[in-house]
């Protein structure tokens, strides 16, 4: 009954706050700062940048220890028990692994802290010295978090590497940082064995899994590695405890290798103080964080968004349940049919997402509604239209009895996909389309806090507040940051623009990182310290400030191409506008200065296009054959044009020709990053012949 009352009262309060925000609430206000001339904004609630939200706490190691003492008996880290692993074969002969997973098994804060201390001691007993670096190369799981905190207790710098990173980038990251110990999973250990001859400094491998891949047996014969299981390191540390060597705020906590959307990845050096500043700032923005919350952890911990989020959750006393994108829901690819996905079992209240994940949720709901058809489809469309109209207008329709009716009849089933208790979603890593943001708002009944930040700013930059129901913006500056716009005359963006100040976004504050590891030239290019000692990062993104101090991302310097007749095309802007087409799973727009139009490579949505083909009576051998048919290309292109016109794109911005692709772009293929952002140069090289044909045809 209490939860029901909260469910009614909280939205009402939000609405009243929203009405006040409509009346001119200032979320960000101008501030005078040093450095390059521009237009700077700070958070309206804090006059100077926030460095820590916890008195006397200056490092992540201190923060974790304090939380474990405060919440000793509360559940912290949860992992689902593996009941069975099965291989299914599809009609076309392809094999798929399916998992039957059980309930979550939990470590309390006290047990987790004991494991962290044991790991720190075990690492020292293995011979790893404090000045040497450790790399964690694995998917997100509880051992990842324990290893991270264990390294922090010894003031050991952790190099984070995406589990999907290719061989060349993996060798580069490990050799450049001279890593001596690698902590990995079974899948990643196989990759390491395959490239063992190319690794210069690795001495020790700690496997998170007791079961080892078949190719690891011969490692000891060919290289001088010692191979130890994670559980053995814990036992070793338990029997031989070592005193901690806690870090200072200025010590490097993490060297985080970017996923490398262009060229080889760069290692961003983050201090404890950098990450703590972002976490402290987010604490002031996300509403009502408390120990009753449950967080769904499934994004890569090698990404600053997830690493910062989990450190915040642990600091507050929140339970963290681990999952993966492939087991997240009941219908996820790796979940055995008839069994439960991670969210259904965990029932989280909080989760972080990248836009690609939210786009998939939206598309999945649309596909299910379309497949059901009939009265159910009509009811969903009516409910959605009524809720959308209400959110944009009458607050009684938005939060009154009608809202409760639609929630019960329609949206309750959709919310059950993610466990039914989500109350706040944090989105970051890439721009979120307004359509998807509104769809998730309505269908999940939860606000989306859309943030803007970069690895180089520890994910800190801006964050939208709960009572801001606008879409397409990324909020006001976080309390740890100043956001400044500076002129970019070449692109036509000036801070003196009459309607709204526009320009390149630069971010200043204690969350701005030290720079790139062993790359002074690039560091000097994009990091600058002003006469007051403030450190600024030049993002290369183009933004504009709204009257209330909120930021909108409108362009990116690297994504702008000048066409043959002088028009500028923003590739990212076009992609964000047209990906709302139900036929498109992913897209890369390409523009050539020697042509007067742009073209696009489109990853086709198989379920949607096959459903369309079935209704049209189109015969085809397989999906690849269907994507090559002229009528299919025409249908998808028309849908793309419709979306572009709805977004009011200029004629020269709309791709004149498209190539339909039947195979998805994955991190494993090297065509998208681990955060699912497209790797433009890699795609251009992989499909150079297709692009050439589009321009010549």
UniProtKB/TrEMBL annotation:
Signal sequence range: 1-24
Keyword Transcription regulation: no
GO terms for MF: ATP binding; long-chain fatty acid-CoA ligase activity
Annotated PROSITE patterns: AMP_BINDING
Domain of life: Eukaryota
Reaction it catalyzes: a long-chain fatty acid + ATP + CoA = a long-chain fatty acyl-CoA + AMP + diphosphate
Coiled-coil residue windows: none
GO biological process: phenylpropanoid metabolic process
Similarity comment: Belongs to the ATP-dependent AMP-binding enzyme family.
Protein's UniProt name: AMP-dependent synthetase/ligase domain-containing protein
Organism: Cinchona calisaya
